[in-house]
């Protein structure tokens, strides 16, 4: 076994233990993890897109915005999440509108801020939030792992060769099928049954997790970088590891926002915002 592979395995195990422990305990521990992740994502996003060079004032505004949102995620009031995200995003939009800057700052604030907000909202403080978070993890991880192995084993037509030459349609389909089965297993373990809502949701999250993976590949290819950073030994950066997860969480959170618009419930107010949980 090579030194790089050993390093990759060890750091992967350490990350898994930290994530699952924080998810199990929930509360402040999980919110702290979600808030720190948002900050790390903004750091990597701004580094990839060279915001400090192309838009130094906006770069500083992005740090302030994500820091405030992360602070609210950890210590604050969940009902302020969307107003803060909307306010900081609209303010950041003044840079490209009034000063002719690009939109990487705006998208970075949304990507990083919503990452922490959606994770914390799904987990919440209740037992249903724990089951919902484990459901999302199982779908995303099963999709990612099986997509790799099925794609390697079967091969075939490329999924998006201009963005990520290694991904195939066979891998994408295999990953989606395994994600649905894994999510169904978690739901069955929690509820004792599997509903059409759960199957449909697992399918949707699996697809969007793969879209998230392709999205990050597009960003890295656009700026000609291999890894989002070198913060995780053997793995690259945090964005490299959570790209599919955050897109799946975005999907859940946006579904919850639509549900809230109908029912009046505030996403993240207690946990269990995932439909079917």
From TrEMBL:
Broad class of the protein's primary localization: membrane
Any one GO MF annotation of this record: phosphatidate cytidylyltransferase activity
Keywords: Cell membrane, Lipid biosynthesis, Lipid metabolism, Membrane, Nucleotidyltransferase, Phospholipid biosynthesis, Phospholipid metabolism, Transferase, Transmembrane, Transmembrane helix
Source superkingdom: Bacteria
Pathway this chain belongs to: Lipid metabolism; Phospholipid metabolism; CDP-diacylglycerol biosynthesis; CDP-diacylglycerol from sn-glycerol 3-phosphate: step 3/3
TM region(s), chain numbering: 7-24, 82-98, 103-122, 128-150, 171-190, 196-215, 244-262
EC number of the protein: 2.7.7.41
Entry membrane topology: Multi-pass membrane protein
Catalysed reactions, as listed in the record: a 1,2-diacyl-sn-glycero-3-phosphate + CTP + H(+) = a CDP-1,2-diacyl-sn-glycerol + diphosphate
Principal EC category: transferase
One GO cellular component, as annotated: plasma membrane
Record-linked InterPro entries: PC_trans
Family in the record: Belongs to the CDS family.
PANTHER family listed in its UniProt record: PHOSPHATIDATE CYTIDYLYLTRANSFERASE
Name of the protein in its database record: Phosphatidate cytidylyltransferase
């Amino acid at each position: 076994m090579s030194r790089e592979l050993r390093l990759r395995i060890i750091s992967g195990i350490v990350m898994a233990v930290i994530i699952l422990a924080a998810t199990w305990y929930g509360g402040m521990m999980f919110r702290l993890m979600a808030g720190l992740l948002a900050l790390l994502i903004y750091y990597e996003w701004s580094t990839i897109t060279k915001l400090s060079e192309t838009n130094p004032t906006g770069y500083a505004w992005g740090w302030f915005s994500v820091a405030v949102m992360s602070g609210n995620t950890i210590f604050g009031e969940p009902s302020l999440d969307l107003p803060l995200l909307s306010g900081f995003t609209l303010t950041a939009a003044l840079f490209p509108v009034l000063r002719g800057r690009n939109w990487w700052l705006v998208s970075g604030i949304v990507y990083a801020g919503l990452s922490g907000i959606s994770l914390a909202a799904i987990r919440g403080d209740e037992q249903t939030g724990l089951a919902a978070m484990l459901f999302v993890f199982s779908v995303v991880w099963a999709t990612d792992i099986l997509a790799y192995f099925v794609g390697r084993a079967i091969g075939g037509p490329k999924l998006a060769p201009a963005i990520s030459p290694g991904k195939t349609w066979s891998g994408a389909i295999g990953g989606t099928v395994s994600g649905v089965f894994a999510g169904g297993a978690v739901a069955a373990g929690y509820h004792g049954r599997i509903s059409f809502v759960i199957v449909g949701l697992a399918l949707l999250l699996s697809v969007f997790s793969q879209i998230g993976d392709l999205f990050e590949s597009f960003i890295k290819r656009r700026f000609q970088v291999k890894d989002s950073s070198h913060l995780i030994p053997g793995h690259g950066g945090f964005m490299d590891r959570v790209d599919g997860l955050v897109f799946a969480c975005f999907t859940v959170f946006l579904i919850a926002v639509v549900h809230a618009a109908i029912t009046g419930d505030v996403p993240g107010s207690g946990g269990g915002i995932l439909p079917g949980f």
